[in-house]
Amino acid sequence: MEHLFDDILEKDEKIIAVIKPNKKRYWKNLLFFAIPLFWPHLIMMLVASLFTLPFFFAHGYNNLYYAYTNKRLIRRSGWIGVDYRCLEYKDVTATSVTVGFLDKGCKTGSLGFSSPSVHAGTPMTFSYVNNPYDVMREIKEQMNNIEK
C-alpha cells in the first residue's frame, strides 16, 4: 500500500506504516445519515440513502488511507479524485485520541493532530483506526525521534 503515497513522498522520506480505516465502522456512519428523524421528506431520504450515499461512501472508503513517515502525517482521501493532506511532525502542537459510542463496538477510534498552520487550525484526523491507543503511541515515538 506504500505505493499509494509515491506521488507526494520526498526523496529521503520513508513510510513507517499505512493505515486503512475499519470498514465496518466507516459504514456505520451511513446508517446515521439514513435515519429519517430530521428529514422532512421520506422519499428524499429513501433516494439519497439507497442510491446516492452508498455510492459516495464506497468511493470515499476506497480512497481513504492514512500514513505516517519519518517526517510527517499524510491523509489520502477523496470521493471522486485523490486528495492529500500532510502535517509535518514539527508543526503538531497537540494530539488526541477519541473513542465514541459507535467506536466502542468496533474497537476503533479517531486520532487528532492539531496545528495552527493546518487549514486555520482545523485538526488533521485519522478516523476509524483500529487500536487507536497503540497507533497513537507509535506515531508519538516517530514525533519524538524527529525532535532529537
Folded structure, characterized:
The protein is of the alpha+beta class and 148 residues long. The protein has one domain: Pleckstrin-homology domain (PH domain)/Phosphotyrosine-binding domain (PTB) (PH-domain like, Roll). Helix content is 38%, strand content 28%. It has helices at residues 23-34, 42-63, 101-106, 132-147, and strands at 15-19, 65-69, 72-77, 83-88, 94-98, 108-114, 124-130. The strands form two sheets. A four-stranded antiparallel beta sheet has the order 1-2-3-4. The protein has a three-stranded antiparallel beta sheet with strand order 5-6-7. It starts with 14 loop residues before the first strand and ends with a helix.
Quote the distance from N terminus to C terminus.
29 Å
What's the CATH superfamily, by name?
Pleckstrin-homology domain (PH domain)/Phosphotyrosine-binding domain (PTB)
**Portion of residues within helices:** 25-40%
Which CATH architecture?
Roll
Brief sketch in words of this structure:
Helices cover 38% and strands 28% of the residues. With 148 residues, it is an alpha+beta fold.
Task: Give keywords.
single chain, 148 residues, alpha+beta, 3-stranded antiparallel β-sheet, 4 helices, 7 strands
Q: What topology emerges from the helices and strands here?
A:
Blueprint: E1 15-19, H1 23-34, H2 42-63, E2 65-69, E3 72-77, E4 83-88, E5 94-98, H3 101-106, E6 108-114, E7 124-130, H4 132-147
